[in-house]
């Protein structure tokens, strides 16, 4: 296995340039999907390699994770080992499990609390209006998903701006943006080097919803005005930190500026001879090498154990 088992733990660094450039040079829908895919693959490879390090790093320790069939001393001696790496990986896996569990629990706890609050509320189809003096609006995923908006937010917007706001929030539901955000947030829990991708993804999903709202209304300036006004009056909704899972607005001035500009080109990959193209290539190469390194380490350990296991 050698150094290959460690590579996936640092290769997420190759995705950082595209996290900074994708939002400027890719259609937000493409950017969101690219960032999520890279984050999930890189996090999976990191998780696999942490597990392998636990095995190879604790092969010589009492209570190690090798199955009973591989308990022969010769088998243990044949397995490459590093006690420090094995113990550190155990701590890291426990921390990863705790962070991921807390993130998922917080996400679904807020969803359940919000859906319980919907009982008895007036609404128009998939829009639920909450009688609240605090202005806010967000898309609440579920079966079915709902657009949650307070009376204070509705009072702050003109009728045309309300339609743009509803179209924006419905785009979040239609695009399953909560799944992309949760997946990338969990990836960040697995490998902290992936956290910068979450900020870029928040912006990309908001821009994706902005573009869908502009397409629905047919008026980019109206949509930009609705986004700006809603951001100016909005306050955190009840629900604590978990609210950020559904209502992170992203950098509003940049979103408004983008809406006042032309529609972004919907191309699948940035031109090769551009900074974004080079960054996309580096991210793709890093993701590929990470996957191959994890596979190589897993296969190598399998063959070592198979060869060393007594008949």
How would you characterize this protein structure?
- This protein is mainly α and 311 residues long.
- It has helices spanning 7-10, 16-25, 28-57, 73-78, 83-117, 151-156, 159-174, 177-190, 195-217, 220-233, 244-247, 252-259, 275-308, and strands at residues 123-124, 127-130, 137-140, 146-150.
- It has a four-stranded mixed beta sheet with strand order 1-2-4-3, sandwiched between helices.
- Helix 3 packs antiparallel against helix 9, helix 3 (28-57) runs parallel beside helix 13 (275-308) and helix 10 runs antiparallel to helix 12 (252-259).
- It starts with 6 loop residues before the first helix and ends with a helix.
- 41% of the residues are buried.
Give the tally of β-strands. 4
Instruction: Evaluate the radius of gyration.
Output: 24 Å
Described by strand count, sense and barrel closure, the largest sheet is: 4 strands, mixed
Within the largest sheet, what's the order of strands? 1-2-4-3
Quick check: average pLDDT?
82
- Proportion in helices: 55-70%
Annotation field: number of helices? 13
User: Termini distance?
Assistant: 24 Å
Helix/strand order, N-terminal first: HHHHHEEEEHHHHHHHH
SS content category:
mainly alpha
**Basic shape:** elongated
Strand share of the residues? under 5%
Query: Low-confidence parts, pLDDT < 50 over ≥5 residues?
Result: 240-245
């Amino acid at each position: 296995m050698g150094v290959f088992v460690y590579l996936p733990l640092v290769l997420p660094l190759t995705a950082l340039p595209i996290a900074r450039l994708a939002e400027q040079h890719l259609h937000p829908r493409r950017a969101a999907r690219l960032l999520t895919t890279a984050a999930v693959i890189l996090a999976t490879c990191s998780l696999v390699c942490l597990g392998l390090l636990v095995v190879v790093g604790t092969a010589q320790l009492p209570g190690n994770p090798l199955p009973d069939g591989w308990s022969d001393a010769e088998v243990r001696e044949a397995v490459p080992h590093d006690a420090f790496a094995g113990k550190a990986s155990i701590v890291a896996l426990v921390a990863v499990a705790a962070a991921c569990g807390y993130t998922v629990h917080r996400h679904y706890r807020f969803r359940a609390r919000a859906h319980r609050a919907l009982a008895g509320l007036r609404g128009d189809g998939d829009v639920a209006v909450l009688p609240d003096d605090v202005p806010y609006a967000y898309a609440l995923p579920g079966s079915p998903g709902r657009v949650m908006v307070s009376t204070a937010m509705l009072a702050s917007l003109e009728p045309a701006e309300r339609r743009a706001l509803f179209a924006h929030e419905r785009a979040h539901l239609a695009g399953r943006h909560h799944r992309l955000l949760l997946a990338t947030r969990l990836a960040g829990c697995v490998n902290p080097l992936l956290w910068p991708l979450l900020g870029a993804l928040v912006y990309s999903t908001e821009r994706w919803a902005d573009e869908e709202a502009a397409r629905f209304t047919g008026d980019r300036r109206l949509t930009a005005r609705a986004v700006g006004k809603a951001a100016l009056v909005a306050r955190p909704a009840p629900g604590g930190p978990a609210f950020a899972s559904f209502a992170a607005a992203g950098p509003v001035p940049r979103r408004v500026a983008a809406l006042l500009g032309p529609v972004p080109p919907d191309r699948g990959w940035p031109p090769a001879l551009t900074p974004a193209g080079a960054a996309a290539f580096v991210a793709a190469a890093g993701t590929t090498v990470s996957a191959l390194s994890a596979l190589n380490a897993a296969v190598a350990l399998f063959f070592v154990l198979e060869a060393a296991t007594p008949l």
